[in-house]
């Protein structure tokens, strides 16, 4: 209304007041999320400010004492440009945002402007400019942790980053932990999960940082990356107990719970997160996980973010689309092993063995020789009869490093099944189950026990597997097949009756047919699909 009055009667408002009105109007539009309209009004405000500056140069003083304080209270031109850049980022017009901020002289850039520029440069792949901007933020604000993390994510050495904060660390009491914090996250960004976990654990044990939710969340994420799902869940639960309104990382927590078969807990978690905020991705991802592991793939595709979308696409048979999403995920998170696992699984599903082998070797070289990368490479080697021995060597190395790593145990069991070394497989699985309980391991143990005619214990293993995951179809099929099978005693009694009633030759022929059927059944049992 005031702007209309201003246009109709220019005498009622001074040029500086008109500038203020335009900025106030643009701010209101910004908060109402009308970003394009806000940009338009901010542009008009800057034009008004430019005209105002020219007027003040022509008439440096009007003799009005009240004009001086008013001019000092005018919204900053730099702040207006920052708001315009925010609008452009919300509209996903990053180039325009960079252009606006680049137009601000370096000496006039505030820390938040340099921070926004650094993030935009990083997103655009302009790493050198991003590093320069992050360093400028640290020069002005040595305790800006986001700038520290930004530099570490761009492969700047931890020692170099720490040197930029050393003066302030030494000058402030009880801040010595910050250098250890920088060291920990330097390990995180180089993919050294083991050393990162150890360093953060040492920080978390210190009285000053004990029960810190952010550190617990980082630990949980690192355990997840390292494939230690049990400890990851434990740390997420600790963080959640300390902060019931925690959202960050809860998507990964929900995913892990779903993999454990705890679908009721996943559903409850999703409801709780939606009650906290439906404006974040996490509650949608958790609900997508629940649908995905309940085998409602279309709903998972609708609900989930990219993490669930690529998995759902794969399970719906849309492998090529899933490959595109996995590649994008790897670009965004190059240290996330699950992204590589998904991509390699898609390659194998489409019989692209060569591409899978190249990717597995790249992961092995990039992330190092740990239990997860060794198992991933072995998984691809198992697809080619020529590389079976290499797969065996890789799996043995993985299990030497982590005897409880479930994926390695499963793949080694698959290899032993192919070689029909059922006793060795049973020993391997019993050893793996000594300190943990897992649905898949119990089910495979049941399969191996069937192979050695231990039917009763096999039935027990299928029952345990179903108690851990009632939706496990393979365990259910195994149990149903066991129930249909005749016991060896019954079979012997029937053969005796046949021998008494019929000729001996017919009995021999029937016995050979029965034996052939039994072997055929066993081949179906241990196909390890």
Automatic annotation (TrEMBL):
One Gene Ontology biological process: cell division
Bias kind Acidic residues: ranges: 492-513
SUPFAM superfamilies: TPR-like
SMART domains for this protein: TPR
TPR repeat coordinates: 439-472
Segments of skewed composition (Basic and acidic residues): 477-487
Gene Ontology CC: anaphase-promoting complex
Region feature Disordered, mapped onto this chain: 477-529
Entries under Pfam families matching the protein: TPR_16
InterPro entries (UniProt xref): TPR-like_helical_dom_sf, TPR_rpt
Record keywords, A-Z: TPR repeat
Name of this chain's protein: Anaphase-promoting complex subunit 7
Species annotation: Phaethon lepturus (White-tailed tropicbird)
